[in-house]
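Field reference: sequence -> structure
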Amino acid sequence: MTYLWIVLPFVALTAAVTLATLRRPRFARRMGASGIAAVILGILTAIFDNVMIAAGLFTYPADRISGIRVGLAPVEDFAYPLCAAFLLPALWVLLQPREAE
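Structure field:
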């Protein structure tokens, strides 16, 4: 389960930074937009990871993944697009000057 341990810090960082924006304006709207983006990125990840794995471009050693898969893709692969969908907008908000809100 090596890959799971690799993605956990990214997920924890994403959760912490996103929660840091909880009191900023339009939090609910931002979470909705991030949720939609996460779904779209998840679908694209499922499609393209499965195609690339099926084509033999790369593989995952069975002892390094959780064993939970979406098609051929291990579930750990979905952490990165999920984090991107929530972390990047949260960072954008935190880096904006307060008067711009």
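Note: Residues 2 and 73 are 15 Å apart (CA to CA).
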